[in-house]
Design brief:
The structure is a single chain. Strand 4 and strand 5 form a beta hairpin. Helices cover about 35% and strands about 10% of the residues. An eight-stranded parallel barrel has the order 1-2-3-6-7-8-9-10, surrounded by four helices. Helix 6 packs parallel to helix 9, helix 9 packs parallel to helix 11 and helix 11 runs parallel beside helix 12. The chain has about 500 residues and is an alpha/beta fold. Keywords: Carbohydrate metabolism, Glycosidase, Hydrolase, Polysaccharide degradation.
């Protein structure tokens, strides 16, 4: 093996691979152990830096309050450690099943769902009163409804138990980061587009704040603002509407009125507070551990080119052409030194339906630029399984938007990328051969580097969160700024012709 070039190593972006959703099965055992062990060795030989796995709340605390059974995960973590890979662990407080790509069903713990039998308001609720049991409504974050504990305390105790039970793996350096689940699919968002309730792409989704806790919170906020007569929206349409089908999102719609702006600010601020509170508990749980915290933000690219940004807005991202809905999240994360993990890195505008007014490239550019302006590290994932050179090249472009710097660190570089996901299809020879080229290009044509310090990852024991940032200061980050320029193509293409395109693109940057 040749020695790596120290200057080029500064351009190295580590690549991880997401394990199957049932790496630990609902029965709390490692799924397909022999196959997984073999696959981990293949991934290690391909040069990847580590793997990511969900750590399902619905498996670990299934038997009752504070009855944690980590046995399946200890076996899984041992397999990963024995393979020589590092690990990203997701505290998965959501249901598996009901979203794009979900192939197994792992609900949240039954004893938690049982509370919902008598009090269905613990779940996200749309205007018609339909409940969604895939994640607890943030309206109960501080309601002691779960055998005397609040939702935040449920999450806190789970993370504390994880830290205590996995201390040997943590101390041994197995974990790179802990991603803290914040909502459906583990993402910081409302459950605005559930396939289980009939949503299909590119529907705008629906607001999810009609449980009694969030409804009361909104009424109190409106009263304090001098408008006790204001109610939650009744003109925002249904899951599969287009923006212009609704009174709320159409041209000159409710979203542009004083009432609409107040509601959307309240709705998105509740999401920010949710993230802030849970990250503070995560920080306390993992204080002193040599790892970093992360959260995932959904790349909702459809209707991005509509003035209302309706799909983003119903999910809780109050993002308009004249208001940045992502940079406030990045500013909030800076208090906890947490990583902003964004999806849809693989998508190109030309692959999307024109009817959906989709713009994943501009969305990624905006979100990443906001993070870098806040000095918040940004990581990412592909949203859908892809095995082709176009997807790989788009991920590579987003990972280093202005290419490799042969003399040291590049101007812009993502903290890491997680590829979705390990599957038999990925390991088919032709596809896996291309994937191995992709791994090497992510690494700036350098060999696997076992020392993160050499590519700029200085992981120190987790320090306490910084003081709480006033809401007004967080919302200052909503002021839009022009994104950083992106090259038209990556200079580390997985195909030879891609490299030629890169040099042409230096003359015409994607803006």
């Amino acid at each position: 093996m040749q020695a790596n070039n120290e200057k080029l190593l500064a351009n190295y972006v580590p690549l991880y691979v997401m394990l199957p959703l049932d790496a630990v099965t609902p029965d709390n055992v490692v799924g397909n152990r022999e196959t997984l062990e073999k696959n981990l060795k293949e991934l290690k030989a391909a040069g990847i830096d580590g793997v990511m796995t969900d750590v399902w709340w619905g498996i670990v605390e299934s038997k009752g309050p504070k009855q944690y059974d980590w046995s399946g995960y200890r076996r899984l973590f041992q397999l990963v450690q024995d393979s020589g890979l590092k690990l990203q662990a997701i505290m998965s407080f959501h249901q598996c099943g009901g979203n794009v790509g979900d192939v197994v069903y792992i609900p949240i713990p039954k004893w938690v769902r049982d509370v919902g039998e008598s009090n269905p308001h613990i779940f996200y609720t749309n205007r018609k009163g339909n409940r969604n049991p895939e994640y607890l409504s943030l309206g109960v974050d501080n309601q002691p409804l779960f055998h005397g504990r609040t939702a935040v305390e449920l999450y806190r105790d789970y993370m504390k138990s994880f830290r205590e039970t996995m201390s040997d793996f943590i101390d041994g350096g197995l974990f790179l980061d802990i991603e803290v689940g914040m909502g459906p699919a583990g993402e910081l968002r409302y459950a605005s587009y559930p396939e289980s309730q009939g949503w299909v792409f590119p529907g705008i989704g629906e607001f999810q704040c009609y449980d009694k806790y969030l409804a009361a919170d909104f009424k109190a906020a409106a009263t304090r603002a001098g408008h006790p007569e204001w109610e939650l929206p009744d003109d925002a349409g249904e899951y599969n509407n287009k923006p212009d089908d609704t009174g709320f999102f159409r041209s000159n719609g409710t979203y542009l009125t004083e009432k609409g702006k107040f509601f959307l600010t309240w709705y998105s601020n509740k999401l920010l507070k949710h993230a802030d509170q849970i990250l503070e508990e995560a920080n306390k749980a993992f204080l002193g551990c040599k790892l970093v915290l992360a959260i995932k933000v959904s790349g909702m690219h459809w209707w991005y080119r509509h003035p209302s940004h309706a799909a983003e807005v119903t999910a809780g991202y109050y993002n308009l052409d004249d208001r940045d809905g992502y940079r406030p999240v990045a500013r909030l994360l800076s208090r906890h030194r947490a990583i902003f993990n964004f999806t849809c890195l693989e998508m190109r505008n030309i692959e999307q339906s024109a009817d959906a007014k989709s713009a994943p490239q501009e969305l990624v550019q905006q979100a990443l630029s906001g993070c870098w302006r806040e000095n918040t590290e940004v990581a990412g994932e592909n949203a859908l399984p892809r095995y082709d050179n176009y997807a790989y090249d788009q991920i590579l472009l987003n990972a280093r938007p202005n290419g490799v710097n042969k003399e040291g660190p590049p101007k812009l570089k993502m903290y890491g990328v997680t590829y979705l996901r390990l599957s038999p299809e990925l390991l088919e020879k032709t596809k896996f051969d291309l994937f191995k080229v992709f791994v090497r290009k992510m690494h700036a044509d350098q060999d696997f580097c076992p020392d993160p310090e050499k590519y700029g990852h200085h992981i120190v024991p987790l320090e306490p969160s910084k003081p709480e940032i006033p809401t007004e200061e967080i919302l200052e980050a909503t002021k839009p700024e022009k994104p950083f320029p992106w090259d038209k193509a990556t200079d580390m293409s997985v195909t030879p012709v891609g490299g030629i395109l890169y040099y042409i693109s230096r003359l015409f940057r994607f803006r």
